[in-house]
Amino acid sequence: MRADRKRLLFFLLKAGLVAGLLAWLVHSRALDLRYFHVAVGGLPWLLLGILCIAASICLTGTRYWLILRQNGIEPPLAYALRVEFIGTFFNLCSLGPLGGDVARLYYMARFSGSGPTAAGATAADRMVGLLALLLLILAALSVAGPEYLEEPALRQAVGVIVGVVAVVVGLVVLGLARVRAGRPAALGLGL
Predict the structure, then answer these.
(1) Counting C-beta atoms within 10 Å of the first and last residue's C-beta, which end of the chain has fewer, N or C?
(2) What is the separation, in whole angstroms, between the first and last Cα of the chain?
(3) pLDDT confidence bin for 57, thresholds 50/70/90
(4) In this structure, are residues 63 and 172 in contact, taking their beta carbons and an 8 Å threshold?
(5) Beta carbons of 62 and 77 less than 8 angstroms apart
């Protein structure tokens, strides 16, 4: 019971600190509440945007969960989604783009007890995400028609993208072959 009271007290202290800081910001006019006003007509669009972002994070978390399971780490889906939301927070609010990957790696290494396996799964997830992004770019360019190939810079960019896609696919295939050979940490590294 004592631990529950300490936890509740700590939560109330944090909530009080946040409320105090917000009140101070509003009172000192450093925070204008008009910026938080949502137009009545814009509320459905805001909710749709939040829903799309949450769906995207859930899809990414499910992909990460599947890669973890392939590597022998079997967290519950809810835990993997929670770690994905934590990783997304650190991607958005940290100093670098790898903050989310470091957070995901930390939590999964702690969960599994195997840092190299968690690192391989995290690297594999990064490569699969890169591959999906590059394939999306190629799909968008194919819809644009052949006119974009008239521009030399775009032609070179497409060549680079196709090359990177080929390398990523090769690394993933090589990594999957290594996983089947009993080296799951090699999935993301292609070793």
Answers:
(1) N
(2) 50
(3) very high
(4) no
(5) yes
